[in-house]
UniProtKB/TrEMBL annotation:
It holds the Pfam family Aminotran_1_2. PANTHER family: FI04487P. GO terms for cellular component: cytoplasm. This is Aminotransferase. It comes from Parafrankia soli. Its cofactor is pyridoxal 5'-phosphate. It comes from the Bacteria.
Amino acid sequence: MTAGASGPAMRISGRAQTFTESVIRDMTRLALRHGAVNLAQGFPDFACPTELKEAAKAAIDADVNQYAITWGAADFRAAIAAKIGRTYPGWTVDPDTEICVTCGSTEAMIAAMLALVDPGEEVVFFEPFYENYGPDSILSGAVPRLVRLHGPDWSIDPAELRAACSDRTRAIVVNTPHNPTGKVFSADELALIAELCQRHDILVFTDEIYEHIHYLGPGGHIPPATVPGLEDRTVTVNALSKTYAVTGWRVGWTVAPAPYTEAIRKVHDFLTVGAAAPLQAAGVAAMGLPPEYYAGLAQEYRVRRDLLCGALENTGFALRPPDGAYYVMCDTTDLDPAGDDVAFARRLVSELGVAAVPGSSFYADPADGRHIVRFGFPKRLETLRAATDRLRLLERTRAAHP
Ligand code: GLN
């Protein structure tokens, strides 16, 4: 049936009009179209641990095919709580009342916002930000207040953070280790956040998906939930995705005090009902991996980081190697004096065959990211070498047009 003059007006909601599609995910589609090495969207191109695959296959063979409990299979929640307790002694989580298993950390974050923020309440984000947080706040009706992370070390100006927080603030969104900058929030910064949260009765929503991917050594990552004053006001968001190289499985969770968890569970139930049951069984195996797995993970990522950062610097990008996560923000001033990050990133994909994310997608004002592109390095060394070989062509371009 065709819609004629009297057909339905193709109207979409005001909410859906206020944000664009994800630039990160769009770059992946562009990379596929050009056969480019995808250093844009952050997902691994290497295998996940065998233990997870075996457990997932065993669960499917055992016909674990029906809904798990909507807020997560009991054994998976118990395993998450036990792993948290082993990793951060002193942090005790009740798996019966303080965990909600979700479809990835993406759902975890938006479910937390929908459950705990009322329309019109302010939510503080650090900028540059992971692009999901913008639409998350629009969908939950929150009013974003941005606080700048200042390069090159992406530090917080305490006065700016203080000025952004007030009795209108409902939550501060922390992401540590941080996407896209690689910043790892320090004890002092978290203490300041705790002070402000207590003064103004603010919650912390913390995305810790890169918890085990940092280059600071043991104790380098501090979960806000373990910071004095934040224990009872923190919603921690995490997932299997990055730590175990299974971004497509979509298994994540929230950890929060029981009353908050109860609300998150309700929202989650009506958003998605639940995460894939056999993959939650594999999550139990993931939580049981020994400490050496995490030490090895960080070490392997350090090698990838050093390879990519060194090659990018040789090519003419200016950068500060990240302390955590698996992205590096690069200044393109020498390579792209015009400062058009989107055109530059498109050229990288179509002419050189390497995808990166234009910096503007991490800023409210696109002009702030015009001299930046983000490369990700959750890749095999051969993939990174293929990318850096291609990027070397930029050196020649630069030599030809100094
Ligand atoms: N965190 C990933 C990135 O920044 C993307 C995750 C996703 O696309 N859901 O590239």
